[in-house]
Amino acid sequence: MAERDGATPVYGIAVAADLADVPEATLRLYERRGLLTPFRSDGGTRRYSDDDIDRLRRVAELRDAGVNLAGIGRVLDLEDENGDLRRELEEERRSR
């Protein structure tokens, strides 16, 4: 069997909520606020990946630390940007 990567959308909203230990309504709120963007099937069903679950757990960590949703969004954006820059740097180093 082929391995799937962390970005493969496999979980429905109920399973994702259970894995992230948050109510389904919270997942919908986070999506409305732009904190995550689950894959949508042709029929509009949300599908979450392991990467989405990790992101939800990070949101919970920040929320528990007292950061509001706007702040969480900014932190996540900066973390994503930092990760992108690190990948670019690593690719540049490999190509030398």
Automatic annotation (TrEMBL):
SMART domains, per database record: HTH_MERR (SM00422)
A Pfam family this chain is assigned to: MerR_1
Residue intervals of the HTH merR-type domain: 10-78
Signal peptide: none
UniProt xrefs under SUPFAM superfamilies: Putative DNA-binding domain (SSF46955)
Keywords: DNA-binding
Source species, domain of life: Bacteria
Full protein name: MerR family transcriptional regulator
